[in-house]
Design goal:
heteropentamer, A mainly alpha (321), B mainly alpha (328), C alpha+beta (558), D alpha/beta (321), E alpha/beta (332), C: 558 residues, 6-stranded mixed beta sheet, globular, E: alpha/beta, 8-stranded mixed beta sheet, binds adenosine-5'-triphosphate, binds magnesium ion
Chain lengths: 321, 328, 558, 321, 332
């Protein structure tokens, strides 16, 4: 069968026509070609827009009583009100501001520290590596819980930011570990040797030669630490270690739990925040999924695979044996 | 040998540092155990008693003296006295909680590992199949759910509404603890929901990493060769591919196991499970220094041990790694 | 009402059924520890006091004058008010058969005196406490002892009755009573035999040698371990706990509708007040404090922030419903306005006294131009109080005062109570047999050094008139005389406003009456009904409980 | 070949590696008493079987390893006691081309960037615009037209031969005087190989660059190099004019090598039974080839033969001569 | 020739890539006879391995055989059911892969890997399989005492010999060797080719030998096919192809090897690069790089045309004159 006929039969004959997309850099193209990653990104964007647009999306303040306690959802209060008569929808939106900011900030900070430390350890090796690995090991062990209390006591109360900072301070260990391992692999590649022989300074080798080769690892590290930070922040606030007067998804859960919202049937006080947290997590996971595939083309879902299999079945030719 | 010695030395040093941090972190927290006793009694104790109590707990003298005393006690294997359960030795409470945590989180870790690995293998082997396209993203998304939410939902759904499972605890407290069927059955029955809440969110991670490793591996020449040899699919999968794909997973499993004794705080809190996470939280809230120190010590120890084991496992399982070289 | 209650209890006596295990949750813990030292406040006291060990005397705080003599039957105060003599109950035996005598009481006193870390709760004069009231105790005969006082006091009984005597023949061999776990308690209380102890549950069963023949009706007390509110409430809602005292925000929905036998009653308890740091601006200004008080929407706090479970306090005097018998309503009426929500008047008051916005940032400033910005400290887990403080901050902001909430981990928060560098704290009052105890702590002058406070006198004000009135109170046993002096105290508090009065906290009390009868109810409130440590009346309460017929039949069938 | 005319010279150099499993440690002598010299505008080919130490020689010369014994002389001056400034200058003068064009170019960076960087880092030009212009010239020079288009690409968009050309252009950027080419064509297709070799030939002739050309293909060595040195087991066993070595090989190993080449016609009578790399402890005695040598003498086991001059430009280490 | 063992007919193999369907093997047909060594030559990426894999039915997604037949003794391998396929593999066709380094599973002992192949097809117990493995090791010249070592403990040449031993385990009729020696030293390569030749003479199996080293191929193969961009451009006996290359591509290829003897001349190589496989090529795929190309070469499909018995070429420019010359040669 002629190649062209096959391409037509499989419906893959004019692939390169989507102009704008085609001109994008390859990783971006792969990303945009994957529905899951795009869906994740869209969800995240939507959440961000909702968070930033909170003042326009709702007329109610998140931290003040705006109606009777525990009103079920209705036209005015789309998600009902809390035990204290606060509007749940407003809390959800304003809570998104804090939760997302903290998550992204902690994720970014932890990634930054982790990447820098990991790259230095992997690149320089020797004593420095020993010392850094040592610190990483210690950092991995230090639990965030008491640290949050210690730090909160110095800055007055465990605001979401404080929790975020502590999570960043304790959460960079894994990234550092992974980045170090990857750097160790790249360090001995010929192109790094070449750069050294061409008198590139060390920081430039790290930043311009090694880092770009680990971008997907860095992005995925960032995505994962962000998930971790969002979940951990919610968890810590849920068990009461946060500042209950702040409005975040975690404190919404905390108050819902404190006020036995589920037991009294006020599901609307707890479930929307649960859902929002899950949605954010899911969106980030979807993004990570696609980032993984950018890093490793083998993992990629191929366009037209279904058509090919159908074609082979029809012709009685073997598929994957 | 030198490698192992070097690692050992390294771990000892890390341990010493952690030991020191363990002493100072709790003490940097404002408040002290005596004062928290007072708060929990809402002030039903005189200031004089309180001051005397502080001395009885051993919190007088300089921090340095206390540190020296702590190290000396540690060297004698004495973790000190719990102030939440004064004057119970902290080690007793620690052991009790550690046992339950080891059971709950240990089993959950193993279970999610085994299930996740199998799922991952299946998804990679039948790549693009219904199972893979549906379960892989779903499993992985579950991974991003908070234990708080999952545990709460399970509790309210299956324990409170449907009443299929108990509301919490590790076993029916009217039973005498012992190695008998009734008690163990009760332990299993009580562990179903907490286990589920832990396993559900952990499977995805293993699933995905196994799947990805496997997909890479299935492109290796030795898999092609194994297929060419006419081996059965099962044999290729379990003998030729799984084994290599398991190497990195086993390393992560070892590392994950290091954190088992960190407990599963939220699950334990929600299900009133007598695990280390919950005990530690209480100890932190009540400033039970001895317990916090003990727990941090335990955690440090197991994490470092797990690291060491992971290092050794790698050497043991991967014959290639046994030959290393370096520049003179 | 109260009179009928005790009568009813006595009259029902003959047709009471013996037996049954009462399930109760007096405290929360992660694991039970076998410790029955009644003076170990980490563990033992929660179970050992009142159930295993009995005090000399149980004050009926809800019904003054109808106290329950326990190991003591009577007392006389000397005319010079410098000593007090007690007569012990004859025929009381320790659970190991040894007779109880004045030796045990004196021994316990001496033990406490020589071990300051062993907090028996007596106000003993010692090196560490030179202002203590009780100097010594002496045995007169086997059933009589006398306590000598450091200064004349008519209220010494309030301090001595609370003592839980320890068996000398056992404790004299104990090396350090502080760390003694007392795993097999020998005591005189109604329940002394510890059975099937595990970290998640234990039982304490009846003392066959209990002095009050025929009592208790119940065979055993069963203490399952619960580690948190959520868990306790789930079990309680399912009707699995007979008696508990847990904070809950919506009892009808979270408790009562779980089981038709689930009942609750939240009588008014001690007050919650705001302590302003009166040693610094702007809190050192009386008009500011008055405006502060008037700015608060107490109605909202009562109904919404504290879920309608708290009780209104009528006068700005720091105590409320619990001591309402002591009020002189007429004398206090002029101060009522301070308890009413009146932001307009508050603003006007501030304006008049120079608390106006001077730098144009939208917030009021001190008359000297320095800006006002302060923190309202509250422990983060205490949700009703957090709600309250949130409302307070909103109310203050509404009148232009820049106050914000500062939630802290509870130990951190508590550590702050003794430092003196705070702005505003919310604080409980300590209930005692008479309001005297509460006020004398609130206006204690010790612990008021620079940078130091005690948790009850955080406001930091010294009002000599109050201390004088309290001294007078202590020197008479005549109720009307006492009341007169107390009114002096009340008026001074309302006048000077050292604390901002909020509301009376609820005393948490829930029970399930499917198996047992004889409960304290709102209709028959014969004692304060709470289960927690520090309510000795629970010892009386538990003795009045017995199996219901239906439940007894069920027990028999099993 | 006299040492005076040598640009870069390596004299009696030995290099040890620590190797071994956990438990058993040993020292491997990668190079034993090797002397080489590179001359202006001349190419020296280094041939030998895998593991014989060819790459190690190149790495030594590039400064990536320090010799255990002996020294390297750059324009007559020993490298043993260099300062870091001199290191930079030396690195500039001695460049390396790696075997694998796939790993010697950084996959994350554009071709243009990878050539402009060394220009800037070594001060060859001092602004970005010049660097870009210079880079285009270099790309044209190695036959990558149109240069602009190539500069914008990333390595994965180029074929292996094109990549190797880029690597050469990058090495040329710093105007080196010596190029160490470690099997620069072995990963390339036959049809492309000649193109690269021709390019290197031109560079040698036109710019007078001295080459160390590592290969295991004697025919390529003959095609490109003026002299050939044969390494076996870390020792230099035969060295001389490339015609002399290929037409008149003397050492038994060189003969074996030549006879093994397909199409060489001869029946490989000397085919050895054992092809494992010989033991190379530092204290090993005798000729490394003795175990495979069909003409081995008793003394071969005891004494390492000295380098003997056979002809004007032909030396050998063998007891047979 | 009558005893055709393997007959490939119009085989097309494609890969699904980001840029669409890429044709790696384009309508290839050739035969391998019993007992002969058939060589497949061509530059990297021209589809040699793909062809080999398709014959052993080892192509997996993203690759797929889109058309054609692979007839092994008349039976179409591509249409075998799963059971028949498993029986066919290794017992009748075994493979030796290019890189022995990766062809052996690094964490499994070599003995097990060889025994596995035996026990998947023959009902023998462990001991029998092991003793058979020992024999095989001896056959390829490896100390049977090292049976239980791991792959990384062997040198590259030894590993390759282990792979060959494994391929011989079931005495298959056909062994596919995909560049079995490229990763090796010349000396070792020589040794291994010698070994294969000896074994092939001894056991009489056929070999499909893939390499890009024409020199090696000319020496070792009976017949040679030359591929370019997925197509077979020329096939004939080794001698014919080596001495009288007919296709311009083959000619250029042969010219690209520097020589060890004779005068040192500057060689030319082949300019340009192979075409993209995702695009349909109308005419001769080599035309853009061909110095003899004419405009029709770019547009007209060049089918394989028979020159002489067993000799085929796909080039419009050279086929006719060449036929003539051969004929004349024969005549004379
Ligand atoms: N970093 C190192 N550590 C230990 N041994 C090494 C190291 N680098 C090289 N060797 C050893 O030194 C010897 C020479 O290696 P080298 O890479 O120079 O060989 P080569 O001739 O270049 O081989 P090839 O043709 O395979 O590239 C080998 O035995 C090798 O194992
Ligand atoms: N998994 C794959 N996905 C996409 N394209 C592939 C894949 N495998 C091979 N190809 C393409 O198929 C074509 C033929 O590849 P094949 O491996 O058969 O070449 P080859 O002739 O064996 O080359 P080499 O000599 O380098 O081994 C190549 O152009 C290659 O890019
Ligand atoms: Mg090399
Ligand atoms: Mg190939």
């Amino acid at each position: 069968m002629k190649l062209h006929d096959l391409q037509v039969e499989l419906g893959l004959d004019n692939l390169q026509t989507d102009g704008l997309l085609h001109r994008a850099p390859a990783p971006l193209r792969v990303f945009l070609a994957d529905k899951r990653g795009v869906a994740g990104l869209l969800i995240l964007l939507l959440l961000t827009v909702a968070a930033l647009g909170a003042p326009w999306l709702t007329e109610f303040p998140p931290d003040r009583m705006s109606a009777m306690p525990h009103l079920p959802p209705d036209g005015d209060h789309w998600l009902g009100t809390t035990r204290m008569g606060k509007d749940v929808f407003a809390q959800l939106l304003y809570g998104a501001q804090a939760s997302l900011t903290v998550g992204l900030l902690a994720g970014a900070l932890a990634t930054l520290i982790g990447v820098f430390v990991g790259m230095c350890a992997g690149y320089f090796g020797g004593r420095l590596d020993d010392v850094i690995s040592f610190i990483v090991n210690v950092a991995l062990v230090i639990p965030a819980l008491p640290l949050i209390i210690v730090i909160a006591s110095f800055v007055d109360s465990a605001s979401p930011m404080v929790i975020g900072l502590v999570l960043a301070a304790t959460g960079w260990g894994w990234t550092a570990r992974i980045i170090r391992a990857q750097t160790l692999q790249i360090r001995h590649k010929d192109f790094i040797l070449a750069a050294q022989l061409l008198n590139e300074p060390w920081w430039r080798i790290l930043a311009a030669h090694i880092l770009p080769n680990m971008l997907s690892l860095v992005v995925s590290g960032f995505v994962l630490t962000t998930i971790y930070a969002i979940l951990a922040e919610a968890g810590l606030e849920f068990i009461g270690l946060g500042d209950p007067s702040a409005v975040t998804w975690g404190t919404i859960l905390f108050w819902g739990q404190q006020n036995s919202a589920l037991q009294v049937g006020a599901w609307w006080e707890i479930l929307p925040a649960c859902f929002a947290i899950m949605l954010t997590g899911a969106a980030l996971v979807l993004i990570n999924f696609t980032v993984d595939e950018i890093a490793n083309p083998l993992l990629r879902k191929r366009r037209g695979e279904k058509a090919v299999i159908a074609y082979l079945r029809k012709k009685g030719l073997p598929v994957n044996d | 040998m030198r490698f192992i010695l070097r690692r050992l030395g390294f771990y000892c040093a890390a341990f010493a540092v952690a030991l020191t941090l363990n002493f100072f972190i709790p003490r940097l927290m404002p408040g002290d155990p005596a004062a928290t006793l007072f708060v929990s009694l809402r002030g039903r104790m005189s200031q004089q008693s309180l001051d005397a109590m502080r001395a009885a707990y051993g919190f007088d003298g300089s921090l340095w003296d206390q540190f020296v005393a702590y190290v000396i006690r540690l060297l004698h294997g004495d973790l000190g006295v719990s102030t939440v359960n004064f004057p119970q030795p902290a080690s007793e409470m620690l052991l009790y909680a550690a046992g339950w945590t080891l059971f709950l989180v240990g089993v959950a870790t193993l279970l999610s590992f085994v299930v996740g690995i199998l799922f991952g293998m299946l998804a990679a082997w039948r790549r693009g199949s219904f199972f893979d396209t549906l379960f892989t993203p779903v499993n992985v998304m579950l991974n991003a759910f908070t234990p708080a939410v999952v545990a709460l939902l399970l509790l309210y759904g299956f324990a409170l509404q449907l009443e299929w499972f108990p509301l919490g605890r590790a076993y029916n407290i009217d039973l005498e603890p012992g190695w008998n069927m009734a008690f163990m059955g009760s332990v299993l029955y009580h562990s179903v929901l907490p286990l589920a809440s832990l396993v559900i969110i952990a499977i995805g991670g293993w699933h995905l990493s196994m799947r990805n490793t496997m997909i890479n591996l299935l492109n290796e020449d030795y898999i092609t060769l194994a297929r060419a040899k006419g081996l059965s699919g099962r044999r290729i999968l379990f003998r030729y591919a799984a084994r290599n794909a398991m190497l990195p997973q086993i390393t992560s499993l070892a590392l994950t196991f290091g954190f088992v004794l960190g407990g599963a705080l939220i699950t334990e809190v929600v299900f009133n499970y007598p695990g280390l996470g919950k005990f530690t939280l209480a100890a932190i809230e009540k400033r039970d220094y001895a317990f916090i120190q003990g727990q941090l010590l335990l955690l440090t120890f197991t994490v470092l041990l797990a690291n060491l084991i992971a290092d050794l496992l790698n050497l043991l399982l991967d014959p290639r790694l046994r030959d290393r070289s370096e520049l003179a | 009402l109260a009179l009928t209650a005790s009568v009813q209890a006595a009259e029902a006596d003959q047709n009471r059924i013996h037996g049954g295990e009462l399930v109760l949750a007096p405290t929360q813990t992660n694991a039970h520890v076998r410790n029955f030292n009644p003076y170990n406040f980490s563990v033992g006291a929660f179970y050992a006091q009142d159930f295993i060990y009995e005090p000399l005397w149980i004050y009926n705080i809800a019904h003054p004058g109808q106290d329950f003599p326990r190991l003591a039957v009577s007392f006389e105060t000397a005319d010079d008010l410098r000593s007090i003599t007690y007569h012990l109950r004859p025929g009381v035996k320790w659970s190991d058969g040894q007779p109880f005598s004045a030796d045990d009481v004196v021994f316990t006193f001496e033990l406490a005196k020589s071990h300051p870390a062993f907090p028996v709760g007596l106000d003993i004069q010692s090196d560490s406490n030179p202002n203590g009231l009780i100097v010594s105790m002496e045995k007169i005969d086997d059933l009589t002892f006398v306590a000598r006082l450091s200064k004349p006091s008519a209220l010494a009984h309030e301090h001595i009755g609370v003592m839980y005597p320890l068996p000398r023949h056992i404790w004299k061999d104990v090396q350090d009573p502080t760390t003694f776990a007392n795993p097999e308690p020998v005591a005189t209380g109604p329940f002394t035999e510890v059975r099937s102890f595990s970290m998640s549950q234990f039982k304490v069963c009846r003392n066959e040698k209990y002095w009050d023949a025929g009592k208790p009706y119940i065979d055993c007390l069963k203490f399952p371990q619960y580690s948190g509110n959520d868990q306790t409430m789930l079990a309680a809602r399912a009707g699995k706990i007979d008696w508990l005292g847990d904070g809950m925000s919506d009892p009808e929905k979270t408790y009562v509708n779980g089981d038709k036998h689930n009942k609750y009653w939240f009588p008014a308890g001690a007050n919650a007040n705001l302590h302003l740091n009166t040693r610094k601006a702007p809190f050192n200004s009386l008009p500011f404090r008055q405006a502060f008080s008037m700015a608060l929407n107490r109605r909202f706090i009562l109904d919404v922030a504290t879920f309608g479970l708290t009780t209104e306090t009528q006068f700005p005097i720091g105590t409320g419903e619990l001591y309402k018998d002591w009020y002189d309503a007429q004398a206090l009426q002029p101060y009522r306005y301070l308890m009413e929500y009146n932001p307009k008047r508050a603003k006007a008051l501030l304006d008049d006294n120079g608390f106006v916005d001077r730098d144009g940032d939208g917030w009021r400033d001190n008359p000297d131009g320095s800006s006002i910005e302060f923190k309202l400290a509250v422990p983060s887990g205490w949700s009703d109080w957090v709600n309250t403080m949130m409302t307070v901050s909103e109310n203050l902001r509404d009148i232009g005062v820049n106050a914000h909430l500062s939630t802290q981990d509870e130990s951190t928060w508590f550590a702050g109570t003794t430092q003196g560098d705070f702005d505003v704290y919310i604080m409980w009052t300590k209930p005692s047999a008479t309001p005297h105890g509460t006020y004398s702590l609130m206006f204690a002058t010790d612990g008021l050094a620079e940078g130091r406070r005690l948790e009850q006198n955080m406001h930091g004000m010294v009002i000599p008139e109050i201390n004088q009135a309290l001294d007078k109170f202590a020197q008479t046993q005549d109720r009307t005389e006492q009341k007169k002096w107390l009114t002096q105290v009340h008026k001074q508090v309302a006048e000077k406003l050292p604390v901002i009065t909020l509301f009376a906290n609820p005393d948490w009390y829930q029970y399930n009456d499917s198996r047992f009868q004889g409960w304290v109810t709102q209709d028959n409130p014969y004692v304060r009904p709470m289960l927690h440590l520090g309510v000795p009346e629970r010892g009386v309460h538990v003795l009045n409980l017995s199996l219901r017929k239906e439940a007894a039949a069920q027990v028999a069938r099993q | 070949m006299t040492s005076e005319s040598a640009l870069l010279r390596m004299e009696n150099v030995s290099l040890d590696f620590k190797t071994g499993t956990w438990g058993r440690r040993s020292v491997l002598r990668a190079l034993r008493d090797v002397s080489l010299s590179l001359r202006l505008g001349k190419a020296l080919a280094l041939v030998g079987e895998s593991g014989s130490g060819k790459s190690t020689c190149a790495r030594l010369l590039s400064g990536l390893h320090q010799p255990t014994a002996g020294d390297i002389y750059w324009r007559g001056a020993g490298l043993g006691q260099r300062k870091s400034k001199e290191t930079a200058a030396y690195r500039r003068s001695v460049q390396m081309i790696f075997q694998d064009p796939f790993s010697s170019l950084n996959p994350a960076l554009s071709i243009g960037y990878q050539i402009e960087r060394p220009l800037l880092a070594n001060g060859v030009v001092d602004n970005a615009a010049d660097a870009a212009r210079q880079a285009r010239i270099l790309l044209e020079r190695v036959g990558l037209h149109p240069a602009d288009e190539t500069a914008a690409k990333r390595p994965h968009e180029l074929s292996g031969g094109q990549r190797q050309r880029v690597a050469i252009a990058r090495a040329l950027a710093v105007k080196p005087e010596v190029i160490l080419a470690d099997e620069p064509t072995s990963m390339l297709d036959v049809s492309v190989r000649i193109g690269i070799l021709n390019l290197l030939l031109d560079l040698k002739q036109e710019q007078g660059i001295a080459f160390l050309f590592i290969t295991h293909d004697l025919a390529s060595a003959r095609y490109f190099a003026d002299d050939i040195a044969v390494l076996y087991g870390g020792s230099l066993v035969e060295q001389g004019d490339s015609e002399a070595i290929t037409q008149n090989p003397q050492h038994p190993y060189t003969r074996l090598l030549l006879n093994s080449i397909p199409g060489a016609g001869d029946n490989p009578s000397t085919a050895p039974a054992q092809t494992d790399a010989p033991m190379r402890q530092p204290d090993a005695k005798g000729c490394p080839f003795v175990h495979r040598c069909p003409q081995a003498l008793a003394e071969c086991r005891e004494v390492m033969p000295a380098l003997r001059q056979l002809a004007d430009n032909h030396a050998i280490r063998c007891h047979l001569y | 020739m009558t005893d055709v063992l393997l007959s490939i007919r119009n085989l097309c193999v494609d890969y699904l890539t980001d840029a669409g369907v890429a044709r790696a093997v384009d309508d290839i047909s050739f035969d391998i006879r019993a007992g002969e060594v058939f060589g497949l030559a061509g530059e990297s990426g021209c589809g040699k391995s793909t062809t080999a894999f398709a014959i052993a039915r080892l192509i997996r997604m993203p690759g797929f055989v889109s058309d054609g037949e692979v007839l092994f003794e008349g039976e179409d391998v591509l249409r075998m059911d799963a059971k028949r396929l498993r029986a066919f593999r290794w017992a009748q066709t075994s493979v030796v892969l290019q890189s022995a380094m990766n062809a052996l599973n690094p964490v499994i002992r070599v003995s097990e890997q060889v025994c596995d192949a035996i026990r998947a097809h023959q009902r023998v117990n462990e001991d029998q399989a092991r003793s058979r493995t020992r024999e095989l090791f001896a056959l390829v010249g490896i100390d049977p005492g090292r049976l239980d070592d791991y792959p990384h403990q062997f040198s590259g040449g030894m590993r390759q010999r282990i792979c060959i031993a494994m391929a011989l385990a079931l005495r298959p009729r056909l062994i596919i060797m995909d560049e079995p020696t490229t990763a090796l030293d010349v000396v070792v390569q020589r040794d291994i080719i010698g070994k294969i030749s000896a074994l092939q003479r001894e056991f009489g199996f056929s070999v499909l030998f893939i390499s890009h080293d024409l020199g090696l191929m000319l020496e070792f193969c009976d017949r040679i096919g030359v591929m370019y961009a997925g197509r077979l451009v020329e096939a004939g006996t080794a001698r014919q192809v080596g001495e009288q290359p007919a296709h311009p591509y083959t000619q250029a290829l042969l010219r690209s090897f520097p020589s060890l003897c004779g005068p040192r001349r500057r060689l030319q190589g082949i300019p340009g690069a192979p075409p993209r496989l995702t695009e349909s090529i109308a005419g001769c795929a080599f035309a853009p790089r061909c110095e003899k190309a004419e405009s029709t070469c770019l547009t007209q499909t060049q089918a394989l045309a028979s020159l002489t018995e067993g000799r085929v070429v796909a080039c419009a420019r050279v086929s006719r004159p060449l036929v003539a010359t051969t004929q004349t040669a024969e005549v004379s």
